[in-house]
Every structure is written in structure tokens, then in C-alpha cells.
Amino acid sequence: MEYVKKAILLSGGIDSICLTYGIKPDIAYTVDYGQTVSKREIYVSKYICNKLNIKHKTIKVDCKNLGSGTLANSKTSNISPSEEWWPFRNQLLVTLAAMQSIKDSVNEIYLASVKSDNFHKDGTIGFYKSINNLVSYQEGNIKIICPTLDFYSHQLVIKYKVPIELITLAHSCHISNLACGKCSGCKKQLRVRHELNIE
């Protein structure tokens, strides 16, 4: 049976840390696409990969001038579903990861989107089915897999039995490389900690 080489998009947030811990992929990609918090995302992702003995690569493409809202430190678009909306971000991340995956002979790319992400079109099952059809249709026949859509973040921690020390390292802030405690990403982190009874 042919070996299936797996990659994951690792942002250093709770959801991607949980999935990385759960599936132990061969390689993790962190994409620096111009987001305000890229330095911290890369730092946390590298730390997690070192801890789990997973190869880590950073993909850097500066798209900051195309961003919208808090992640780009710019005005939020009037069609934005949230304050940190970055148009077509997941599509961009998948495309960049797929391009790198061709070089790395990867067969499957994993992403972690959860139930609470479905207010974004690119956080829904429809998006992941569509992007998988598009990418797997093209050369390389790479599959795009998101096995976390039926779960909330705290449920992923429980499902994959993720050590609390890794969860407390997660960086979800959309504004700063030091958690601001006020943005939607930080509020999510605090909510998950509360749901898991983490002090």
C-alpha cells in the first residue's frame, strides 16, 4: 500500500494545534501572507512542531495590501461578515499550501475549521468540498481535508486529548503579537479556556 504523505496548515491557534496533535502530519505549513500577527503565529507553530517532531515550513507571500479588518490593520470591508475578514483567505492559504505540497510530494492537506467558523463562507462544508474538488482535479491530485467541521474548539481539545500546556501556547489574537484580550480571536481563546476550566 502506497504511503500517504500528510501536510497541515498550522496557524498556531487552538484549532490547528489540536488537529496537528491529533493526526501528527509529516509536515506543517504556516503561511505569512501579511497578517499583523504573523511573527507570533510562526513562533508558536515552530514550537509545536519541535515538540511533536514534525517538519515545519513557513510560506511567505505579502498580500497585506489586499487584506481587510483587524488581521490587516486596516478598515473592515462593508461586505465583511466579521471584523477580521480577509477576502478569500482560506482559498489563498490552500492554494499556497498546495503549491508547496507539489514540491514536497504531499498527498493530503489538512485544515482545522470548526462549527463556530461557519459564518464565513470559507469555514463551511460547502467551501471545503468545492476547494477539494478544485485542487484534486489539478495536477498532483492533492486532497483537501477538514475533519473538524462538526466540532467546537473545546471539543477538539477533548477529542484529540491535547495537553493543556499546548493549548495555553495558542495565539489567536488578530491585532498583536502579544494577546490584546479584546479582539474576537482573544475572546474565543478565553471562551475555550473557560469551557475547559483552564485558569
UniProtKB/TrEMBL annotation:
Enzyme class: ligase
PANTHER family according to UniProt: 7-CYANO-7-DEAZAGUANINE SYNTHASE (PTHR42914)
Protein name per UniProt: 7-cyano-7-deazaguanine synthase
Family: Belongs to the QueC family.
Coiled-coil intervals, chain numbering: none
Lineage, opening ranks: Bacteria, Pseudomonadati, Bacteroidota, Flavobacteriia, Flavobacteriales
Entry EC no(s): 6.3.4.20
Catalysed reaction equations from the record: 7-carboxy-7-carbaguanine + NH4(+) + 2 ATP = 7-cyano-7-carbaguanine + 2 AMP + 2 diphosphate + 2 H(+)
UniProt superkingdom: Bacteria
Residue stretches spanning the membrane: none
Record pathway: Purine metabolism; 7-cyano-7-deazaguanine biosynthesis
Keyword terms, alphabetized: ATP-binding, Ligase, Metal-binding, Nucleotide-binding, Queuosine biosynthesis, Zinc
